[in-house]
Fold:
Amino acid sequence: MRKGSMIRVAVLFGGRSSEHSISCATAGGVLGALDRSRYEVVPIGITRDGAFTLQPDDPERFALRAELPEVEDNGTRVRFPESASSRELRLARPDGGEESLGVVDVVFPILHGPFGEDGTIQGLLELLGLPYVGNGVLASALGMDKHYTKTVLEGAGIDVAPWVTLTRGRLARDPSLWRARVRALGLPVFVKPARAGSSVGVSKVEDWDALDAALDAAFAEDHRVLVERAMPGRELEVAVLGGRDGGEPRVSLPGEIVVRGRGFYDFDAKYLDAPGVELVCPAPIEETELAMLQRLAVRAFEAIGGAGLARVDVFFDGGEFVVNEINTMPGFTPISMFPRCWLASGLSYPELLDELIALGLDTPR
Structure:
């Protein structure tokens, strides 16, 4: 960081995944909350085609409304450094001219889904020697892929929901075997793309006649699909922050997803205010149960080699916790569960951003 000056933060958002608009909405929240007396912000929007563009520093432009926000291709192109010897970004204008965007101190990659949350952008930033907020290459890749998340957690002795991973090739080669394995999970099951978030492509199957349609919806998002036993109990989520100076990760109070009038917490309920779901934060839970949950979240975070932040989602049947997923770049609008959990734990949204940027600057890569 340049001594005696404000911190210059490049905020990356948008991207090529199906969660493009959710990333834009997250960026709108972050742009609106960063303290401009401390930070200079360079908003870099990645179009659905993968072009890196300079976008207006306007939180309202990317607010989450009925019409989901998008990164528009305005013809600009942001150029990253050619080597790790520089942290200067440059801007190519539509008229053919070029100018410096200055040196950046840290990159905040607010990207959800493939081509951003999965370790790809993290690898680019590490090649260029640019400090960044959040998880590294391996943790991001593991957290993005539900099959490998479960595999690593199971190897660490952490309970996960039973599952079967399918590809169209497996189904074509031996359909009776793989369908038998799926049916052995029992009903109901959830069908999910291996690498997608925000409940995109996810279906709850309560009748085997609906399985093929659910598989088609999931295969539209990824070539590998998980079929997972639906677990009983409460749906709880806790937010994790990396530890400072080698300290243990910190865990928030839990939030709870209470589903009353729909099948599950789907995309419309998460982002379009569809009825039938209530988010409760902090969730009512006994002190001993809270301690168990927070220890479990730390174990899961450390099992994937987490850094910076994560949200750990669990099922709780009153006796045992089962980890559902680890989200290495959770939804980050001011009303999302990750910041809400920290707010309930005494950390405001702007303070949370300060902490994440500090961790990004301090985390060795």
About this structure: The first strand starts at residue 7 and ends at 14.
